[in-house]
Amino acid sequence: MRVISKVTELHQWRAKTRSQNKTVGFVPTMGALHQGHFSLVEAAKSKCDVVAVSIFVNPSQFAPHEDYDNYPRDLESDLKKLEPYYQNVQDDDDFIVFAPSVEEMYPRGITLDIERQIGGFVEIRGLSLQLEGVTRPHFFRGVATVVTKLFCAVQPDLAFFGQKDIQQCFVVRALVEDLIMFPMKVVIVPTQRDPKTGLALSSRNVYLTDDERDNLAPMFYKGLKDAVAAYENKNERSAEKLLALVRNRAEKEGGLNIEYISLIEPDTLEPVVGNVGEKGAILCGAWRIGAARLIDNVLLGIPLMPKD
Ligand SMILES: Nc1ncnc2c1ncn2[C@@H]1O[C@H](COP(=O)(O)OP(=O)(O)OP(=O)(O)O)[C@@H](O)[C@H]1O
Ligand SMILES: CC(C)(CO)[C@@H](O)C(=O)[O-]
Ligand code: BAL
């Protein structure tokens, strides 16, 4: 499998795909690949002629106290796991991996201390400081910056993101629209879960003990499912009651250390006031368990991929 680490080489690859009139699907990742990532790769393969997967643990989305140093990294094992998707491509360049160094992505260097950072950074204001942004105020600036760089490097037709990181999907869609990157489009792929427990797959699940992974962490999704059942089967629309259902299961019964649970409007990400309206809503949250901080969400009354 061709692994490209330099942007200039990537541009040559892109020129070739363009000369062949092939559409390019792009799957950005931070590696430690799992079935969640593979579902994005499968979606990209099904919609595009050529697929590029990037593997890059992006420093600028981590605060100095977060897990940048410990984040799981194993390029060799990731490449092995991608082999089945590379098998039977017509041309070697129809499936590639972009695995740049930090220096390649941040030519002026990068420190996790925002005050001392120099160079170009991208902010998506209005969608970045609520929800995940409360605990991680630096996070979406780092994501928007690296995603912009990756989009400039790969120049995809379609880019694939997971619903698990729902706020990230909103930020990236706003980025594409506001920075006039269209006709490029963002495709959102449903969250992949452990078939037995329902726990959303996440690279950070490796931080959990077996008991945390199999018994405790899944209580959050159980709470989300309680709310979905009440919304769908009992016509429950009260924000207060839907949120209480999640809290009861995840916090009271499961004993999880909840950071936030929010019911938000699907366009503005503002909290639903009173009852869920015609537009539906997103129920999302984060919790800490052992050494991990995990997130999850479900959609109430809205199609899976609005705008697709
Ligand atoms: N369970 C999942 N289902 C679908 N997509 C997923 C899932 N987990 C991650 N993704 C998507 O894969 C892409 C790369 O994510 P990333 O490499 O950060 O993995 P991750 O498992 O989310 O890791 P982390 O533990 O850092 O959140 C993102 O678009 C993310 O939303
Ligand atoms: C989009 C992304 C690859 C940017 O580093 C990251 O935030 C992720 O993996 O979700
Ligand atoms: N999947 C989001 C990447 C992060 O939490 O840093």
UniProtKB/TrEMBL annotation:
Domain of life: Eukaryota
A single MF term (Gene Ontology): pantoate-beta-alanine ligase activity
Keywords of this entry: ATP-binding, Ligase, Nucleotide-binding, Pantothenate biosynthesis
Protein name (Swiss-Prot/TrEMBL): Pantoate--beta-alanine ligase
GO BP terms, alphabetized: pantothenate biosynthetic process
Family, per entry: Belongs to the pantothenate synthetase family.
Organism in which the protein naturally occurs: Mycoemilia scoparia
EC number: 6.3.2.1
PANTHER family: CYTIDYLATE KINASE/PANTOATE-BETA-ALANINE LIGASE (PTHR21299), PANTOATE--BETA-ALANINE LIGASE (PTHR21299:SF1)
NCBIfam families the UniProt entry points to: cyt_tran_rel, panC
UniProt cross-references to InterPro entries, sorted A to Z: Cyt_trans-like (IPR004821), Pantoate_ligase (IPR003721), Pantoate_ligase_C (IPR042176), Rossmann-like_a/b/a_fold (IPR014729)
UniProt entry tagged with the keyword Ligase: yes
Pathway named in the protein's UniProt entry: Cofactor biosynthesis; (R)-pantothenate biosynthesis; (R)-pantothenate from (R)-pantoate and beta-alanine: step 1/1
Catalyzed reactions per annotation: (R)-pantoate + beta-alanine + ATP = (R)-pantothenate + AMP + diphosphate + H(+)
